[in-house]
Design a protein that fits this description.
148 residues; mainly beta; Jelly Rolls; 1 helix; 6% helix
């Protein structure tokens, strides 16, 4: 899925469109990022980014979570830094994860929960994994806030 990204700006105390283009497309589309030095944000470009934004930074991403068998095969090759072969990872962030497709299983150390379209998971630095038991990618819109 391609994502059209419209970015606004202020020039001469008037608002306008700064850019209107497509966000770079991979399994995890980097849509926008902010840092303490640039609180209005920067185009994250096409280079792979670390999973966790640094303290005080944010990352807006569209994730296309592949079916579980595909994900596990990729993780067995060590394809995502900081994620173990079972998909578990922990980030020093608060994440707002909006489920656009589904269902998808959120797996925690003690239990799991099925979430679907329209659900929002507030992930608060906990160890977790996602399981897509279907046969097509599941889209998750994420907003990650790096913690101090």
């Amino acid at each position: 899925m391609t994502i059209r990204r419209i970015v606004t700006e202020n020039v001469g105390n008037r608002s306008r469109v700064a850019s209107d283009d497509l966000a770079p497309h991979t399994w995890c589309d980097e849509i926008w990022a902010t840092t303490p030095q640039d609180p209005l944000g920067v185009d994250p470009g096409t280079q792979p980014k670390p999973l966790t934004p640094p303290p005080g930074a944010t990352a807006c991403r569209m994730v296309a979570l592949p079916p579980d068998a595909v994900m596990r095969a990729g993780l067995a090759r060590g394809s995502v830094e900081g994620v173990d072969p079972d998909g578990f990872h922990r980030t020093n962030t608060v994440d707002y994860v909006f489920v656009l497709d589904g269902p998808v299983e959120l797996v925690l150390d003690d239990g799991s929960v099925e979430v679907g379209p329209g659900d929002c998971v507030v992930q608060r630095g906990t160890n977790h994994a996602w399981r897509n038991h279907g046969d097509a990618p599941i889209r998750l819109m994420t907003f990650m806030v790096g913690l101090p």
